[in-house]
Amino acid sequence: MKAKRILGIGLLLLFACVAEAQQYQVGVCDWMILKRQKLGEFQLAKDMHCDGIELDMGSLGKRVDFDNKLRDPRMAQLFKHTADSLGIKIGAIAMSGMYAQSLAGRDNYRELVEDCLNTMDAMGGVRVAFLPLGGCGNNWADSLPLRKVVVKRLHEVGEMAKARGKVIGIDTPLDAKGNKKLLKEIKSEGIAIFYKFQTAIELGVDICKDMQALGAKNICAIHASNTDGVWIRDDKALDMPAIKATLDKMQWSGWLFIERSRDVKQVRNVKNNYGANTRYLKEVFNSFPAPEVKLNSEGRDPEYVKTILARATKCTDDISLTWSTIGDNVRHIVANKYFLLNDIYAERDSLKKAGNKYADAIAESKLYQKHFDFDVELSKYLIPRHIERVKDVMTYGVVKVTYEAYCDMIPTLKDFEKAQIMAWLKEARELAVDGESSKAKHAVMNKFKGRINNYLSKQGYNVQKEREAWNERVKARGGRL
């Protein structure tokens, strides 16, 4: 019995070690976030809560060598120091230039790979390189003469990588069966598959079954995205929970890099696209950090809470933070503000119904007491101009629209007059933020417009005539007031 118990404990410890060793890390491809070999890629990756970067070797095109600035030891040291100081890992080095250049057609293929291996060492001993074979053409795998050349060269560079303790992950147009056959032909432990979800989808194969058929030992890293269209979260071709369950079962661990899956409606909005995709992958694979600010939704109607969160999300969308933990905290602060206002006005209405003549005064007192808490909470996560943007969204952007309208209506406004108009509009926004409805918020703004008009009249402007002349100018431009 004692021996069996010891064996049981041993097995539990073994399983615990396997579970501990299995981990997933999420990164982005620097050439896709418009930061190819730029120092800013590390701060951007940190802002998007990535674990790391797939750093590219630089463009190739008609050049003999990669446009690789990291050959310079000083530049390499600067990149490595910046990444380390921000806690961003370099998970792989990519030769993305080979998407359009043929491995079979490059006489200096060994030199190109050698340059990549050297860069991997310079970046702290990166283990995985990415080598796409797209430049070899669509039929290289079916053309026996061309395939022989590709296989021979992959064996050579694979042995180069193996000798340095590295592996080159190749991107092929093949399914698991085809990839296993290819790896058998290459005969090098220095070559593995850099698995790509997009390829599996385009081939029409089931990603989970294909990965299982390929085997964990043959996958060195994963491009965990599809072609551009929608975010990973909204892509029906990507069942990420099922993919994670499959990788768990395979006991695979490693890097999941986001290459594409951009929203085509905002394809160049790097932070939104890659931030949203990073967040979703980390939610599925690692658990995304929980927000510090608690949402005061307890006891409230779920549909109402959903509506308020959607309203609050417009604020974080405006400052491109929806995908981040900071965005979560800001969204909760804004939603809690709406909840608070609803509670104060609901209490006021209840007091009025009960005949309390001080109902409005009580509500105003509570609004004043709580008003400045909003700025204090937001200032923990946002800079002043972003706090202003949040308030602008909550008040339908009336400050900007109204200010620009006055400047367009009266082109001769002096700088100090413009400053006074803006000051009053911002004061109005402070009050409007606490409004109980859209109508109430606009009423506050309209009250201040009256103050501005009176001020302009005292400054010698005939506001009515200015408005009529403005109307004619706008009509001449093809618009209308």
List the helices and strands and how they pair.
Layout: H1 2-21, E1 24-29, H2 40-47, E2 52-56, H3 73-86, E3 89-94, H4 109-122, E4 128-132, H5 144-163, E5 167-171, H6 176-186, E6 191-196, H7 197-203, H8 207-214, E7 219-223, H9 240-250, E8 254-258, H10 270-285, H11 302-318, H12 325-353, H13 359-378, H14 384-394, H15 398-409, H16 415-432, H17 438-458, H18 463-476
Parallel strand pairs: 1-2, 1-8, 2-3, 3-4, 4-5, 5-6, 6-7, 7-8
Helix pairs in contact: 4-5, 6-8, 8-9, 11-12, 11-14, 12-13, 15-16, 16-17
Overview of the molecule:
There is one protein chain. Helices cover 56% and strands 9% of the residues. With 481 residues, it is α/β, with parallel strands linked by helices. An 8-stranded parallel β-barrel has the order 1-2-3-4-5-6-7-8, surrounded by 6 helices. The longest helix has 29 residues. The protein is elongated, with a radius of gyration of 30 Å. The protein starts with a helix and ends in a 5-residue tail after the last helix. About 3% of the residues have low confidence.
Outline the biggest β-sheet. Answer: 8 strands, parallel, barrel
Shape: elongated
Strand content: 5-15%
Number of helices: 18
SSE ordering: HEHEHEHEHEHEHHEHEHHHHHHHHH
Overall pLDDT: 93
Distance between the termini: 90 Å
The Rg value, from CA coordinates, equals 30 Å
| Poorly predicted regions | 6-21
Residues in helices, as a percent range: 55-70%
Spatial sequence of strands, sheet with the most strands: 1-2-3-4-5-6-7-8
Structural class: alpha/beta
Number of strands: 8
